[in-house]
Structures are given as structure tokens and as C-alpha cells.
Amino acid sequence: xxxxxxxITVLFAAIFSGTLHALPLEESLPGxxxxxxxxxxxxxxxxxxxxxxxxxxxDTKTHIDxxxxxxLRVNGEISPQFRWRASGTVYSDKTNREIEPHFYEPKEGLPxxxxxxxxxxxxxxxxxxxxxxxxxxxxxxxxxxxxxxAKRNKLVLRGSSNNYRPWMDTTYFLSQPAPTPFFGFxxxxxxxxxxxxxxxxxxxxxxxxxFHANRLDFxxxxxxxxxxxxxxxxxxxxxxxxxxxxxxxxxxxxxxEWVYAIPFVPYVFAQNYLGDxxxxxxxxxxxxxxxxxxxxxxxxLWDDMNNVTSMFDDSWWGNKWGASIGASTENRAVGxxxxxxxxxxxxxxxxxxxxxxxxxxxxxxYGQCLGSExxxxxxxxxxxxxxxxxxxxxxxxxxxxxxxxxxxxxISDIHITPENPELVPAAETYKMATDKKxxxxxxxxxxxxxxxxxxxxxxEWLWARYAQSVYVGDYEGMRIEGSLGVTW
Length: 488
Prior knowledge:
This protein is mostly beta strands.
């Protein structure tokens, strides 16, 4: 019955897709309130939005969630060289489910305050400043960092992107990623751009955790861009109720390592210089726009491996890698309709983003992955078609997702490589296995999602959206969302 209703709805929407148009990006438009003159000024823009979502999976009760938020954004210039922006958002959530209290531990996700048994309030904020000079750009702030050409699943830094997954349907934590405090700089010469960040991450109160990232971009002929990135994460390790049995993981305090913050230092060498005790990663990405209005792209993440030839060797758990490849085209005029399309495949091996020293070295901030929210041991094939005309926009999407639940498939899993294996309890020896299995049949959950969304924006400052998705496979059910917003 649900499938039939969904197919009828999609058919109805497709028939009327001729009434779609290019909508303004209300979240990115300049503010309506401007203060200052031509040299020193700032813009103010505010958004008020309310939404309602209904989720119904087999063997679970229907979940109804209401969320409203108020967002204030300010941006401006102090001089032609110095620019800044900031935002603050306050959310209020209501649900027909019980919400567990939050004790302000970062590993439990963004903090919130209970408002009765079925409500909570929480907030996020960002701030960013940059100074442009003849030698480059200096940057500092607390913001969402984003790298790579992937549209759906960025593997290194996903920014504020947060794609809904059925396993996120919980009130125990907020799946929204957290902004990152950082400072950095960017330097360009000819076709080469170098970017570097250093910042702080959070996983436990009063414990240090830091990250560093650098990137080289090469603007090649024929609209081809090639990027190489390095990341490194480290922090103070702690013991827990279930102690980490790795010999080097017991209560080691770490401070900010300035070696990583020195411009142009290769992290692969700096990590060895500091004792080979950090979580380092190397990634490559390619964007090809040689064909007008088209982009073919790919990302490859090497989290850890013996050597390049061991990439497909499953005999060692540490051969960890992930890849996203895709193609897209945007705003292609088909009669009066603007059509955009993208398709992307993502493959993430077991143990990617994890580390044997635990949460202090895992690729997370406030309990959320800095890369794809799919996490380790997963894959997705995703396709989306957008059609716009005048005040309407129709989006159709389909995806196939597989996610393993075996050990090594959760970003918080810790592989054991102790100095004295004989001291490991018999019940824990499975954590010492050296081989890995990608999407084992016995432990993998797979589902397909088919959905659409209709957005109506009669003016740049007012919009309404209705979305519906059906899930089949190991997750069976439906999710319906509606939202209304005003931006001024």
C-alpha cells in the first residue's frame, strides 16, 4: 500500500514537473539590512523556519518530530583586505518520543537542554575572518571545513553536510556535525594553491584533541583540477570502563604539536619525527570540467596501508581506504526548465576513520565523523535529478546503501594489537583479527531509498518544502517531511 501510494505521488509530481524553475538560494543571499559605508560595512540577515517530520519503519512506532529554528547571519568588511562573517542558530525540538538527558560530554554529540520529557533546545554558531594580502590569505574562526569535489559523500572534510540515514532516527544524540575552531592560511602562485589548517576537536571534557590539514590544488589545462591533501589527528588518551588493551593507549596527555602547524611541512614525515603515534591520512581528488556544463570527479582516501600495492589486500586490517566517484551537470536548459543531475558511488573499507588509540585519535568531532557519515565498511550508489521552473523545484532521488555491523564497521571500534597477546581475555580475541571483510553477508544491512521533494519559493524570502522517501530492504518504511521558512 505504501509503495503504491508513493509511486502514484511521484507520477503526479513528474506530470507537473513542467511548472518548475531556478530558485534563489535563500540561505546565501546578502542581508536586507546594511550598516556602514563603502569601505566599512556589515549585512544582517535572519531566518525563521519550522518543520515537521513523520517516520514509520516496520516493527517500530510512528515517530513525529517538530523542529523550529531562528538563525541570524552577519557578514561584512572592515577594509578591502579584511572580511568576516558570523552566524548563530537556536533550535527547539518536540517529539512523541522520550529524549534522554545530555551531560555535555562531546562524545555524545552536540549538547542540548531538555524541555520536559519530549522536548529539547540547542544551538550552533560559526565565526570566520580572513585577511587578504599580497603574499596570501590568513584565516581564523570556528566554522565547517569542507574539501573535495564529491557532491554526496565527501571523504575528508564534509563541512555542514548531514545526509539522513535510517540509523540516525534516534533521540539519544544529535547527528548534526559540529563546527571546528581553527586557524590557517592560503597561498597561491600561478596554477598552484596551498591551504593549511590547524585546530581543535572535542571528544571528552578537559581532554585535548587536535587536527591539522594541508592541501595542494593544481589548476591544470582543460578545466582539470587535481588536489592532494594530508590530515593528522591526535589527542590525550583516556581509560574507560572498558579499557583499551593496546599498550600505548593508557592515559597519555598530548599538547598542541607546533611541528604540524609550520607551513609546508609534510605530515607523513612529521608524524615519524614525533614518534609515529598519530592518526595520519592522505587523499587525492580530481575534478574534470573539460566538457562544458559537465563535471566528472573522484576522491581517494588512504587512511593507512602498508604500501600502494597493498590497497586491495584484505589480509591486514590496516589497509584502510575509501573512494567516491561521480558525474554531474547543472542548470541545463530543456525548454523552459532548468535540469540538474548527479550520480555518485562511494566505497569505504572497514576500519577507515578509526584508530587503535581510541576516541582521542578517531576521525571525529563531537562524536560525528569529519568525513562521510556512512562511516567504515559501507557503500552507497546515489542519483538525483532536479528540475526548476519559476517558483517551483522538483527533486527526485534514489540510492542503494549497504552498511556492515561487524567489528570494524563503527568509527568507535578499537582494534587490539597488544604487546602480550596471551593476556587478552578469550572473549576479546576477535578484536585482534588481522584480516578484514568488506560487507560480509551475515552482518550487512542493505536498503534502497526512493524519494522526491517539492520546493515552492514565490519570493526570495519565503519558501515551503515537502519531501517524501520510501525505504525497502533491511529498513522498511517511509519518511515524510514538510518545512516552511522566512528569510529577511
